[in-house]
């Protein structure tokens, strides 16, 4: 089961900054659970794309009015959500920011409801 893990900044990080992102990457890569991951450029480099009534609308920088922004991502291959949670729990940004786990939708088995 694949999960997208959004790595987000946080306005209230934990004070414990002893974790090392390179060690986390090596551990998760080593056990074959990390498919792909990367840090992202600064939010100011973002471009938001929308189409409304046929008109292309572009916005520079982050569109949201929040202090938390997505700073990176990882795609995880796990047996189930509990395994993905354990992997996310060990990520340094679990203490310095926040992580959102979201399963990929299995379009082959999605209902037509």
From TrEMBL:
<comment type="similarity">
    <text>Belongs to the YciI family.</text>
</comment>
<dbReference type="Pfam" id="PF03795">
    <property type="entry name" value="YCII"/>
</dbReference>
<dbReference type="InterPro" id="IPR005545">
    <property type="entry name" value="YCII"/>
</dbReference>
<feature type="domain" description="YCII-related">
    <location>
        <begin position="25"/>
        <end position="104"/>
    </location>
</feature>
<protein>
    <recommendedName>
        <fullName>YCII-related domain-containing protein</fullName>
    </recommendedName>
</protein>
<dbReference type="InterPro" id="IPR011008">
    <property type="entry name" value="Dimeric_a/b-barrel"/>
</dbReference>
